[in-house]
Amino acid sequence: MVIKVFLASSSGSTAIKKKQQDVLGFLEALKVDYAPLDIACNEDNRMWMRENVPVEKKPTNGIPLPPQIFNEESYCGDYETFFDAKEDNAVYAFLGLPPPPGSKEAKEAYLLENGPVENGTIVNGTDDAEDEENLEAEEENIDDDTLKAPVKEEEAQEEVEDEEAKGEDDQPVSEEEEELRQLEEEEAPEVRGGRRRRSDRGSRGRRG
User: Which of 19, 130, 30 is nearest to 66 (CA)?
Assistant: First the structure.
């Protein structure tokens, strides 16, 4: 892309000469490639400039005055709009060129796209998307823990019941229960002996 600056080399107006010098000097300071096109010595340049300046940008008499600035065939503006862009640190945007890395205009464009930077962190920029992803991940973890909680409660309840069952089996026998068991064991032989004696008597009676 070539920046075209239409100017009048032999203009008798001091104001026009000063404006042309300001534009060319600033473009040279920015190291922007440009092509100066003289409308005083070249009728084709004069006609092309007048035809391609938008109607709404032309003065009331319909004849635009130099300097007029174009990016190839695209109209950029006149001296007044160039000066405004210069004051706003937006000359590259005015010219339709990408600002060089590290320039003030490039930094401002970056801030407009991504938001302000604090301590190396972008604020209200791409970090918002990361925060949303982190929030979604936290919500998923909460849901997983909520689902696992009832299972853990059931396992804990089963362990408690097992411990209670073991406790009942391991409980010591009281003295009363021990005495009752001994009496039952002592009575058992006597009962078996009495039954045996009765059966012997019956067998003798049948023999007699």
Answer: 19
Average pLDDT over all residues of the chain: 77
The pLDDT tens digits for 21-61 are 999 999 999 999 999 999 999 999 999 999 999 999 999 99
CA distances from 50 to 37, 45, 54, 61, 80 (A): 13, 9, 9, 12, 17
- The dihedral built from the CA positions of residue 65, 70, 75 and 76, taken in this order, carries a sign that is negative
CA-to-CA dists, residue 72 to 6, 64, 75, 93, 149, angstroms: 12, 18, 8, 15, 69
Angle at 66 between CA 53 and CA 24, to 5 degrees: 115
Structure tokens at 183: 């009496």
Residue 92 tokens, joined? 């590259």
Do residues 57 and 75 lie in contact, with contact meaning Cβ atoms separated by under 8 Å?
yes
Q: Is 30 helix (H, G, I), strand (E, B) or coil?
A: coil
Q: How far apart are CA 76 and CA 49, in angstroms?
A: 12
Smallest CA-to-CA distance from 128 within 138, 141, 115, 142 is with 115
Read off the tokens for 160: 């408690």
Contacts of 15 (CB under 8 A, 6+ apart): none
Q: Is the bond into 59 cis (omega within 30 degrees of 0)?
A: no
